Each structure stands twice: as C-alpha cells, then as structure tokens.
Amino acid sequence: MPTTSQPRHPIRVVAERTGLTPATLRAWERRYSAVAPNRSPGAQRLYSDADIQRLRLIARLSAIGFSLAELAQSSTTSLARMARQSLPDPADGDGALEDARANASINRMLSDTRALDPASLRASLTQSIFTLGPRVALDAVVSPFLEQIGIAWSCGETSVAQEHLASAVVRDVLGWVMQNAAATEDAPTLVATTVAEEQHEFGAMMAGAAAALAGWRVVYLGPNLPAAEIARIARDAGARAVLLSVVNPQPTRSLRDEFTALRSGAGKRIPIIAGGASATDHKLTMGRSSIELAENRSKLMTSLERIWARN
After folding, report:
1. CATH number of 9-86: 3.40.50.10950, 1.10.150.20, 1.10.1660.10, 2.50.20.10?
2. 3-class secondary structure, 4
3. Residues with Cβ < 8 Å from 210, sequence gap 6 or more?
4. Does the global pTM surpass 0.90?
5. How far apart (Å, rounded) are the C-alpha atoms in residues 35 and 51?
6. pLDDT tens-digit readout, 261-290
C-alpha cells in the first residue's frame, strides 16, 4: 500500500504495527532521531505511514546486527535497499503465518499441560513471546490458551491438577514480562489488582503486562484486595492510574461499596479503570464512582496513552 507523510497514528498504533514498545519508540526518537513525529493539540505524538515504514525497516535491520545510530542517519530509501540486500523477502500472507504460529504455540501448550510438564509449557509460552512479540502473544496465545483450558476444565477434559499447573506457569511468565519490561525514566506508575472477593487475577495481570510493555512502571498487587488497601498503595506509590479486573459475577451492592471506598480513598485525581468479563454488567455502578470502563485491551491502552500525555 502507498505510504503518506500525513501524521495521524498515535504511538499505540505504531507500537502494534512495528512490534516496538512505546518506550523504545520514545528512546529511538530521543537518542537517535530515528523519526520526528508531529504532536497533536494535546501534545500526543502522531506518526505517519512513512514513519511506520521507516521504523519497521530500522527494527528489522537492527535485529540482524546493524548499528541503530547508523540506521537512524540513513534515508528510508537507503534502508529499503539495505533490507532488500540483507533480509529475505517477507512471505505473502504475514497475518496467516502469524495465526499459524499462534495456533501451533497453543497446541504445544495444551499438549504440555496434558503431560503435566511445567518446564516444557514455560518454554513453549516463552518461545511464543519471543517469536510473535509480547503484545501479540498476549492476545493471540495467552488469552485463547487460558480460555481453552477453562473450557476443557469445565467439561471435565482437563483435571484440576492440569488446570492449576497451567495457571501457575502463565502467572509466572506474565510476572516475568511485567518485571522485564523496561520503564522509561519519566514513566508514570500504575497499580493493577482486583477488588475484594475477586480471585480471578489473569485479567489484571495481562492488563498490567500490556501497560508495562507500553512503558509504564507497574505495581502489581495480586487479586482480592480491599479497596482501602488499594487506595493506600496507590497514594503511597504516587500512582497515575489504577487498573481493576472484574471477571467473576458479584453482587452489585458489594461492588458498589468497594468502588465507593476506593474512589474516596484514592481521591478524585487518580484515574481508575476497570475491565473484565463482568465489568460491563456494573457500568452504571462504576460511573457513579467515576470509574472508567475499558471494554477491551485496545480501549484500555487508549485511556492509558491519554493519561500519560497529561504528565
């Protein structure tokens, strides 16, 4: 497709299309002047199609050993010529190839789970993260794998031990992703957890991992935390946002009390965002406590990008 120089893509979109984290994009701009994005009236970076094409070329060439400093000083035409000479032609149907790799990873992970082999399961999951990139792996591998494990367990096709093993490995790897995503020097802090009585933590963990990959400094607190404790930690950590996961059905009254206490304890200035399978059921209750609903990860990342831009 033809590329244009019109600045119109926010950094979240560029990260998704290049496989680079927002933190990396900012660092390449600051240290190497790899691209020079425009700014929106709200001071958000806006990239053009040409910028995305250039960043993709730099990313692919740097991955095989070319100097970032030298690549950043080269014209896009020169980068394209270097890519033709140094890289294999991209296969047709990249999307289909990515789907095939994701499905192969899920099948390996299901086989590892059935065999009760945590080492192989961890290796399969980690390999999918390196092969597909962590952001793609979250949506294309981790989410469907957990969903399939849940369905198999409910149907009696997976034992309790197998389900626990899968959960333990995924929890461990998601924690590793959060810990190893490098936050920038000016990164704001975010607290991720679930409210009291909510034991399902993977939604909060995956949201926290996505935020960490976007450059946030994430404080993950685990599940089932009272509102007063969440608020205290958010204040003490100087958090710029709080992420909550609401997956299991809960009485509206208990959630209303938790949301009210959290908003009261955190104050009016800290944005609180909630998502998960049951969050939409409590949209009205959340609205009364000024808690934003994130219906999917894309909307979550848009909200976090807006919050970061206020820094």
Report:
1. 1.10.1660.10
2. coil
3. 135, 138, 297, 300, 301
4. no
5. 6
6. 999 999 999 999 999 888 988 999 999 999
